[in-house]
Design goal:
Elements: H1 19-35, E1 38-41, E2 47-50, H2 53-60, E3 66-67, H3 95-102, H4 108-129, E4 134-136, H5 138-142, H6 144-154, H7 161-177, H8 179-202, H9 208-214, E5 216-218, E6 224-226, H10 229-260, H11 262-270, H12 275-285, E7 290-295, E8 299-301, E9 304-306, E10 311-315, H13 316-319, H14 354-371, E11 375-377, E12 398-401
Helix pairs in contact: 4-6, 4-14, 6-7, 6-10, 7-8, 7-10, 8-10, 10-11, 10-14
Length: 403
């Protein structure tokens, strides 16, 4: 990664694309919550960082002042960001009709119907690991689970898995710093989904590509219209990004935690019925996603004026460790009863695939713990490096499987 100017004060000069942020953001955010809940930086053409739960909740519902048309703070100038990823880059009133058209594919019934297939897929991944003493929980398992599933949902060859992983890395990680990397990945993804859409026009199938091809947006006069080609490609693009990186980062973090906390690992091995509740706590504690908004008009957040034309980061990871909403927020309690976390976002853009992500994590952790009830981190925890970008997770999770 290229050399970046060191940060002297995170309250006035934050750099969320630095290695220091990636590896130490929980501590940095804890400091900001106490002394500067709305940080600012002149980097990235000027940007803000909001760290407290109530502030993030409030501005997430103020879509007039805080627009979703830009959802990342990176080295690209805001005026040059033109990518459309409906519904995530849409504001009311355009947002709701697009979201409603995609929701049926991710409702609880559809997700439940996928669970047997995911269970079989996870079992196959575990078969490939069995017999090895050293494995990488990220590369050999966590990253493969959502890639395999999204490939099935898109109705494409399993050979596309490595390509999906490369595109996600180039767009959400390396491309956040090197804009040309992101542009190249974006062009390739858009061309790929254009080809898939063209194929489904003559060969429809039971997959997300065909679903998006047939999706329609409800209009105010009671009629509806199909998605445009650009909207179709954008929707498939965002489903790929949202369906892969956030889940693999959450699952990798869960394996990291269980490898470094044997008491929690043993609890779930002995009481697997606790796994769904444990997943909520692990999502809270290791929340992967930080989203951005474009400031459409001058406003005020927590008494701090914010300027139109700049961007603002909403730190869900920070909100989820806010002591005004969570008891002992810096401790993992797998049996936590009250847990209104923001790991899937808040407001109108709350993750539409949350049911799917929860099911994937449940099946994956149940399968892993049943097959490998004893394992530990194969390196010192301080050696784990975390990803840079809007989605944070462990790059590698070297594990030693114990007898």
């Amino acid at each position: 990664m290229s050399e970046r100017r060191p940060v002297e004060d995170w309250a006035t000069d934050f750099d969320h694309l630095s290695d220091e942020w990636a590896n130490n953001s929980p501590a940095i955010l804890a400091d900001l919550r106490e002394r500067c809940p709305v940080a600012h930086t002149d980097r990235f053409y000027g940007a803000y960082l909001v760290t407290r739960y109530d502030d993030i909740d409030e501005l997430s519902h103020n879509t007039a002042a805080f627009s979703s048309r830009i959802t990342a703070v990176n080295e690209n100038h805001p005026d040059k960001i033109k990518i459309e990823l409906p519904p995530i880059t849409l504001d009311p009133p355009e947002h709701a009709p697009f979201r409603r058209s995609l929701l049926p594919a991710f409702n609880p019934r559809e997700v439940a119907a996928l669970e047997p297939w995911v269970t079989e897929m996870v079992s196959g991944l575990l078969d490939a690991i069995e017999g090895r003493e050293l494995v990488d929980g990220a590369l050999d398992f966590a990253q493969l689970v959502p890639v395999e599933l999204m490939g099935k949902l898109f109705g494409v060859s399993t050979e596309m898995g490595p390509q999906f992983r490369r595109w996600v890395d180039e767009f959400l990680k390396d491309g956040q710093i090197d804009i040309e990397v992101a542009r190249k990945a974006s062009r390739e993804v858009q061309a790929y989904f254009a080809e898939q859409l063209e194929d489904r026009r003559s060969h429809p199938a039971d997959d997300l590509v065909t679903m998006v091809l047939g999706a329609e947006v409800a209009l105010e006069d009671g009629t509806s219209r199909p998605f445009s080609q650009r909207e179709q490609i954008g929707a498939l693009f965002v489903l790929m990004l949202g369906g892969i990186d956030t889940t693999w980062s959450s699952l990798g973090s869960a394996l990291f935690h269980l490898a470094t906390h044997p008491e929690d690992r043993e609890l779930l091995v002995n009481q697997p019925e606790l796994i769904p509740n444990a997943i909520e706590e692990l999502l809270r504690f290791y929340s992967p996603v930080t989203i951005a908004r474009y400031i459409a008009e001058d406003a005020e957040v927590a008494g701090c004026p914010v300027s139109a034309g700049q961007r603002m980061l909403l730190s869900y990871p920070s909100a989820n460790r806010d002591g005004t909403h969570f008891d002992n927020p810096d401790e993992v309690d797998l049996q936590r009863a009250q847990n209104r976390h923001m790991a899937f976002g808040v407001g109108i853009h709350r993750c539409l695939g949350s049911n799917l992500a929860r099911m994937e994590m449940k099946v994956a952790l149940e399968g892993w713990l049943a097959r490998f009830p004893r394992f530990e981190l194969a390196v010192d925890p301080s050696e784990i490096r975390w990803t840079v970008g809007p989605v944070r997770g462990p790059r590698l999770v070297p594990l030693r499987i114990l007898p």
